[in-house]
Amino acid sequence: MIENTIAIQVQNAFKTYVAGNREIQALATTDLTIRLGEFVCLLGASGCGKSTLLNLIAGLETPTGGTVMANGQPVTGPGTDRVLMFQDAALFPWLTVKENVEFGLKQTKTQKAQRDSIVQNWIDRVRLTGFENGSVYQLSGGMRQRVALARSLAIDPAILLMDEPFGALDALTRDRLHVELESIWKATRKTIVFVTHNVREAVALGDRVLVFSPRPGRIIGEFKITLPRPRMLEDISVVKKTAEVMDVLRGALEAGPGELEGAYI
Ligand code: ADP
Ligand code: MG
Which of 15, 42, 201, 239 has the fewest CB neighbours in a 10 Å radius? Predict the structure, then answer.
């Protein structure tokens, strides 16, 4: 059945915030269908409504109009089938690495022995073996995001929502995390929605890249990326595709190249 192959469906959804006596349209009317197991990147300049859309899917915000469905159900609030990961890992500093990874699982009915094995498996998968009992405030930015990734995946959500998760990391760490995320995605077949303002990052990771206009955000372009994986940021094919996407963006937005490059690179 076709419905079973759809992970996320956004129909006619828009979001308007009221601030004092002013209305801010954060997200213009949006339609979006994401297939099960797809890796979709949402690309757009700061303030165009990317986080708003992700929050609607996560159930942290409700649309002003329209509907959002995830895993065949209308989204009415947060759920363990969808996990949102941010740029700031937001770990609990008073808990160890292991306790942080276990945090979400503890809210479920999973038994202690099974919890331990799931937690250890994810700690190993994100290459933090040996750091289990360490404090999270002693970790580097990249390691903190690894903990956050392990914590998100430990509860085995069908959908992983990532809001500029590697935005604060240096290029080398970011590249490594891309490769690891791609390999985890391949092995688990999660549906991933990944927000970024970086064209090259979107091209390196996505099966599909959806481009947002500046505020109020709406989807103005779509690129299918069929380059072989794993992809590295410096791969010639990724660089070439990035240039192609940039060319189309320049045309679509009818803006000067300088302005666009500032917004998207
Ligand atoms: P992005 O993630 O693309 O940078 P956001 O979705 O965070 O953009 O925000 C889109 C627009 O909506 C911005 O102009 C932002 O200031 C506004 N906005 C976001 N959240 C709120 C809020 N809670 N109240 C008022 N305005 C908001
Ligand atoms: Mg944002």
Answer: 239
209 phi, psi to nearest 5 deg = -120, 125
Say if residue 71 is in the same domain as residue 167.
yes
Per-residue pLDDT of the chain (265 residues; tens, 9 = 90+): 445 699 999 999 999 999 899 999 999 999 999 999 999 999 988 889 999 999 999 999 999 999 999 999 999 999 999 999 988 878 999 999 999 999 999 988 899 999 999 999 999 999 999 999 999 988 999 999 999 999 999 999 999 999 999 988 998 899 999 999 999 999 999 999 999 999 999 999 999 999 998 878 889 889 999 999 999 999 999 999 999 998 877 776 665 444 444 444 4
Nearest residue (by CA) to ligand 1, atom 27, is 17
What is the extent of the structural domain holding 128? 91-156
CATH for 38 = 3.40.50.300
Ligand 1 pocket test: pick from 16, 18, 24, 264 the residue with the most ligand atoms within 8 Å of its Cβ. 24
Q: At CB < 8 A and 24+ separation, what contacts does 59-65 make?
A: 60/84, 61/15, 63/13, 63/14, 63/15, 64/14, 64/15, 64/16, 65/12, 65/13, 65/14, 65/29
The tally of domains found in the chain comes to 2
Q: Give yes or no for residue 24 CB within 6 A of ligand 1.
A: yes
* pTM beyond cutoff 0.85: yes
- Give nearest CA residue, ligand 1 atom 10: 49
Pocket of ligand 1, candidates 15, 16, 51: which has the most ligand atoms within 8 Å of its Cβ, to mutate?
51
